[in-house]
Description:
Elements: E1 6-7, H1 19-22, E2 31-36, E3 39-51, E4 54-63, H2 75-82, E5 85-96, E6 100-104, E7 106-108, E8 120-129, E9 132-137, H3 145-148, E10 161-174, E11 182-190, H4 195-198, E12 205-210, H5 216-232, E13 234-238, E14 241-249
Parallel strand pairs: 1-3, 5-8, 7-8, 10-14
Antiparallel strand pairs: 2-3, 2-6, 3-4, 4-5, 8-9, 10-11, 11-12, 13-14
Amino acid sequence: MYFGPGIEADIKSEFWHGDIWQESPLFGQSSIQINQDKGTRIGRIIAIVSTPNGTKLKIQLLYYGTELPGNFTSSLRIKRAQNGELWLSEISVLIDLQNVIGPVDVWLRDTPKLSDNYQFCIREILYSHEGRWKIRDIKLRNQHPSEYIKAQITTSQNIPTLRLMLDIYYDDFGTFRNTYHSLGGIYLQFCNMPLQLRKQLKNHFVLSFVPFGGEFDDVMKPIVDEIKNLERGILITINGQKLWLTAALGV
């Protein structure tokens, strides 16, 4: 079972090679100023990842008004940029830890404003679709897991954390040879296992069954409720050692 950080790999064969694994709700996300070849810029930390060249930060880049595509540089946006507005992009880059200059206070306008002392704000997202640049309201962005999962873990206690990534799937089958009455099976896999182990039938676990005529949602509700509790973290003890256990769906 793998419980380490997300890994950047050219060939993504394991769950810990993907974004869902990397974007943990445990450390949250914040904005920083960084050094790049063309000068300094601002980005949001979305993950801490392991690479062959050591630990790096995955940064979601924020665009200045002067960097917007020409068809979006209206006089209104230029004025807003002069007042400290940035644009959130879908582009992410890896940076070395030594390239971090320091934290920056950026207010995303779809979140509560905690202070009036922010340095920058964001009200729109910039992304590319089918080769064309588009701008949409900030409310349509993809949120970081730390924004909708409220973990109960307190890092001050210095307790190790284990994070399970769960894969749940459904498959129905006929229970009788001559009469069709389907029975639906709900199964669980642990994505922390390497691919070769996940292929083995013994590592597919039965969670529940949906009987013929039963409602899938009724069966899934208690399962989802339990997973939500695990998302926030629970304190367990294994061999006398306290551990925080969290879980998330690998979908």
